[in-house]
Write a structure and sequence with these properties.
Blueprint (H helix, E strand, L loop, with lengths): L1 H18 L9 H12 L6 E4 L9 H8 L8 E8 L14 E7 L2 E3 L1 H9 L15 E3 L2 H8 L17 E4 L7 E8 L2 E6 H8 L2 E3 L2 E3 L11
Parallel strand pairs: 3-6, 6-9
Antiparallel strand pairs: 1-8, 2-3, 2-5, 4-10, 7-8
Pfam family, one: tRNA_edit
Organism: Cyclophora tenuis
Protein name: YbaK/aminoacyl-tRNA synthetase-associated domain-containing protein
């Protein structure tokens, strides 16, 4: 039994070293799943960064500094949305019940633009009416069952269910951006081109420049 304990400690130490965890963080299944998917998809631009426990209490400009970003523009969040009008059993990729969107913190989601983007997935004559779209932020329960990630740790990699991913086209000119990494204190940075290639993300105009206050903690 002591030998097993020693072996388990050695394995844990090796894993902690690989993930470069802070002392108080224990490697969990969510972190493993996210990293495994990123590595299996050969995302060579990927960078993993641990952030302080008070990261979400800090102003956006300070968060950008923590990540080594030149501005707040590359800081993004992943939001799971539900189309309330789509059938629950719907698996049609051109009319998904759930989607995951990646948008900047410095922007707000425009659900009308998002509906336009999803409608455009079909040929003109087959497009759905606008009244067949009603996108809302998914419940915590749906988010957890679809992604397997807790609040503020959602990442588009290693999702439990295969749902369409939409990247805001405003992120594209940045070339590199940051998002959740599978743990509330772990962030993942990646090149835009590698992200699109590895996730088959739909790139679309889905956001508006931010005006006024929004919930900085919503999403990733």
């Amino acid at each position: 039994e002591n030998k097993m304990t020693a072996m388990e400690k050695r394995v844990e130490a090796l894993e902690r070293s690989r993930f470069q965890c802070p002392k108080e963080v224990k490697v969990d299944e969510s972190m493993r799943r996210a990293r495994k998917d990123v590595e299996e998809k050969h995302c060579f631009s990927a960078q993993w960064k641990w952030v302080p426990t008070n990261y979400y209490d800090r102003p956006m400009a300070e968060r950008a500094k923590v990540l080594g970003a030149a501005s707040t523009l590359p800081l993004c969040k992943s939001l799971v949305l539900e189309n309330k009008q789509a059938p629950s059993s719907n698996e049609d990729p051109t009319n998904p019940k759930y989607i995951l969107v990646v948008i900047q913190y410095e922007a707000t989601l425009d659900v009308q633009k998002l509906a336009n983007a999803i409608r455009a997935l079909r040929p003109v004559k087959e497009r759905l009416n606008y009244n067949q779209f009603d996108f809302r932020v998914a419940t915590t329960e749906d988010n957890d069952s679809l992604t397997g990630y807790a609040h503020n740790s959602v990442t588009p990699y290693g999702l439990l269910k295969d749902i369409p991913i939409v990247l805001s086209e405003a992120v594209v000119p940045l070339h590199f951006f940051w998002m959740g990494g599978g743990h509330v204190r772990l962030k993942l940075g990646i090149s835009v081109t590698e992200f699109i290639k590895s996730t088959n993300a739909i790139v679309a105009d889905i956001s508006q420049p931010r005006d006024g206050s929004v919930d900085d903690n919503e999403g990733d």
